[in-house]
Amino acid sequence: MTEVGNVYGESLYCLARDEHLSEQIGGELNALRDSFRQAPEFIRLLSSPSLTKAERCQILDDSFRGKVHPYVLNFLKILTEKGYMRHFGDCCSSYTSHFDQDNGIVRVTAVTAVALTDSQSARLTEKLSRSTGKQVILHNRVEPGVLGGVRLDYDGQRLDDTVSHHLDAVRELLSKTVL
Question: DSSP state, 115?
Fold first, then answer.
């Protein structure tokens, strides 16, 4: 995460928290991030040197006035005026990180060879919630290369109990064995 993203994301989060709007603004930021990922040319347009700052802000007004909270619209304008729209994703990540920390939420990515069933997801979520003492938001990412088992990534930690990880450990052990 960039320093710009961290500073601006945290600042917006503090404002939203103080105004009791953190969930609403967080939801709007996530929706915008998803939209911008699907249409990256919009970010390029807002960063275009061929348009004046006033024209870029007018594009934001025309696109979002009345559709997002004024704080979100003004935030987009500030990023645009400063030339920081390329950091929008990092701002969203920072915002989400601060929101999660304040609300006892941990986001976990479970990497598996095949998709987890609803039952497996529920059991894993419950077990992680008990062990972390936090509300768990579980995301399952399928990577056939792990072969089996599960790898959990959360709070800067990686717990790897995949078949591919165990095979790598055996391979390394065998390579160090003198015959």
Answer: P
